[in-house]
Amino acid sequence: MARARPGISIEVAGSDKVQHDLRAMAGRMADISPVTRAQFHWLELREERLFSRGKYVRTGALRASLTQDTAAGAIRVTEPGGLKFGTSVWYAPFQVVHPGPVTPKGGLRRKGHTSAVLKRLRPAERRNLAEDVGNWILKGHRPLL
Fold it and tell me: Which residues, 6+ apart, have CB-to-CB distance to 85 below 8 Å?
């Protein structure tokens, strides 16, 4: 017959709350759509300001694809590492701030020139967007818009 050995029992105060909080964070990590919806909306408003000056609008297709999430050509994709925001309107890459010199065929050299639409995010803007995701995952705070 085996002898019973004395055991050690350890109880961690607050472990139920930690478990609850970690499960909630895992759920929010699996669905960051509340944050990306707000971020897409912010990006659309940012693009709308560009188009509000009347430039780069002939048919309105490019403008619509960058300012309305349901428009033809609108790209709004949430990925594990971030999000994709853009347009599939074919002539979007040709909208540049300062086109280059005239090519031998009479066109304007645009490759390598700054896009007039889809402005790059400044470092502070990128930090703010990343902070919104972190606040959502860790605390459940939805971004304000």
Answer: 39, 40, 43, 75, 76, 118
Which residues constitute the domain of residue 32?
A: 23-139
> DSSP label at 71?
S
Domain assignment of residue 116, yes or no: yes
Q: What's the pLDDT tens digit per position in 87-145? A: 898 888 777 666 666 666 655 555 655 666 666 788 898 888 889 988 999 999 988 76
Letter string b/e over residues 124-133, b meaning 16 or more CB atoms within 10 A of that residue's CB:
eeeeebeebb
Work out the number of other CB atoms within 10 angstroms of the CB of residue 143: 19
Name 77's Cβ contacts closer than 8 Å, sequence gap at least 6. 83, 84
In-domain check, residue 46: yes
What pLDDT was estimated at residue 7? 82
Residue 13 lies inside a defined structural domain of this protein: no
For the record, the structure tokens of 78 come out as 């949430």
How many domains, the chain? Answer: 1
0.85 exceeded by pTM: no
